[in-house]
Amino acid sequence: MAPGAIEHGPSAKRTRHDPDIDSTPAADMEVDEAPAKRDVVYEDFEGYSPQLMQQFYRRLFPFPEMVRWLSYGHKKNPHPMYDENYLQRREISMTLDGDIFVRYQSFKNADEMAKTIRARNPLKIDIGAVFNVDPAKRNAYSSFGAVERELVFDVDMTDYDDVRTCCTGADICKDCWPLMTIAIKVVDHILREDLGYQHILWVYSGRRGVHCWVCDEKARKLTNEQRGAITDYLKVYKGSENNKEKKVSLQGSVLHPMLSRAYREVLLPAFLDQVLPRQNLLVNETQIDTLLAMIPDEELAEEVKAKWRNGGRRASAHEDENLARWKDLEKIVIREKKRNIRLGHCLEEIVFAYTYPRLDLEVSKHMNHLLKAPFCVHPKTGKVCVPIDPADCDNFDPMGVPTLASLLNEVQRFRGDLREPAEEAAEAALPTDLDKTSLKEAVQLFRTTFLDDLEADCKSDIERAYRAKKDELASRPTTGW
Ligand SMILES: [Zn+2]
Questions:
Q1: Domain, as residue range, for 386
Q2: 159 an active-site residue?
Q3: What is the rounded average pLDDT of the residues 329-340?
């Protein structure tokens, strides 16, 4: 094998910097001694393969952070209130090569988790609920059920295919990604301001969407009914196959404060600055008809169209044509609103239809729903599911996230050699490798924007519960006569 090379499966393509290497048969054979570092000809890893994943789990996956998160303070420093079995009651499931799905796995600690994951080398790791007993031993108990689960949300770009003109299906680009940014902003704000949650983790799904984990204790302990009530609160988008032309219906003369705030602060600015111009909503013929169909007065829609046909308000040199046309439409609808009550929330409804988050609500309603773990690698894109800071989500670039191959190339450049570690080393964590790659930044963000505060709060909650219990015992009247 060439220096710095590891064995690859058929799906991993390789390119070489030095064209001569390809023609040298010896390059693919084992060499006895690694040459001095300066002589090493690196090969770039590309794509995705189980062999690369093995290296990823050995060298880069942040097991300690994952376990710190999922322990919710129940680890280290034996304390009378710590539940040492807490982590082990959590279901972790794995998808193995060949579509083999292994559910109800559990782990005692980070070492055990790392050892098993490294041995089984899953394509995907999912996180399930916390059960009343260790899910791996569920058959030994008469009752088995979920008792805790983060409140989770899943937003997928494919649900916006009727809004997007730039891409369809699994593709994303800089023109449609703002739709995800809008979803993060709106949902995050509602969760924090209206529902009072603080420990919220946003994660890029690795391909075309985002996941949200609400980790406050009161969120983890919500019943399925309460989860349903929260999803109802968030639901505005009432799209259905039979109701294509009008997907949002805003009731009442005044918008709900939550909706009016979302509209003012996020949806309208994003619609005007990003969605309208980038998706060419009023230049693209099909999009024009879709949008105008949302005006509940056909004559008026015709009038708007005629105005555009006749030139309408000319877009200035610096103004986008879509935006100029929107101003025409806005003016006509506002003028007519006084006469036609059906036009009440027409403009807002259009903006909501194009921008309000479209959540896969089934994922949020049930405790027992699995969701992909952060820091997994998406097999189709090779991208790592990195956390997103909601306070800085405008600057998140899904096209620039580290990939399996790019990270291993970074490790290779640092180490000069990625040959299989010795047997013992294979089981040991190699944390220094993470720090030498761009994944470090993502793990740091996970810690500083989410994990550190969560852990501190969990510990103080446990301490508070302990003191309360002690006080209660101390204040109990002594009975004696
Ligand atoms: Zn796109």
A1: 60-234+359-396+438-465
A2: no
A3: 92
